[in-house]
């Protein structure tokens, strides 16, 4: 998969699973490889989610600072992190490791990453904004889930969304996490779909 989700975020970067170039992209990819995404963590109904790519025809392009991004944002750099856009067909399968139930979705986006020229969170390695339009999926790790809960916008570990999604993220030495979630569109709880609770 050419982009890392912020699952996202993310560490970033995606969100966490947080899709960024260079250093941030490497960090995001490494994070995805080592982070387990668990629906209903700490409950008897908990199960891990795995993701496999069916079709990946995505391309990531670095953007010039000042390039408009949906949602009223503009591309900004915080070297070595540079703004980028990822587009093209991406189809993935999400599987409940306990039951084997799976869902295959078009999660193509388009997706943008931009960075605050100076991190807005004291001590952070980077902060920025992730924007997505169209069909997508986000996987949130424990740090993101806790931050979103504190912000009053709790989200499940796996969410399928379609529309204009804007998420702010922080990259700290302990990892990257999403700090806000704003969607103008529709969403489905992927954990509920994979568990049969929909």
Distance between the termini: 28 Å
Number of strands: 14
The percentage of residues in β strands lies in: 35-45%
What is the average of the pLDDT values? 84
Order of helices and strands: EHEEEEEEEEEEEHEEH
Q: What is the count of helical runs? A: 3
Shape: globular
Flag low-confidence runs. 1-34
The assigned structural class equals mainly beta
Notes on the structure:
It is a single chain. The chain has 198 residues and is mainly beta. The protein has one domain (9-195). Helices cover 14% and strands 43% of the residues. It is built from 3 helices and 14 strands. The protein has helices at 22-34, 142-150, 190-195; strands spanning 9-10, 37-39, 47-56, 59-62, 68-69, 73-74, 84-87, 90-96, 102-106, 111-115, 126-132, 135-139, 158-172, 175-189. The strands form 3 sheets. Strands 4, 7, 10, 11, 12, 13 and 14 form a 7-stranded antiparallel sheet that branches. A 4-stranded antiparallel sheet has the order 2-3-8-9. The two termini are 28 Å apart.
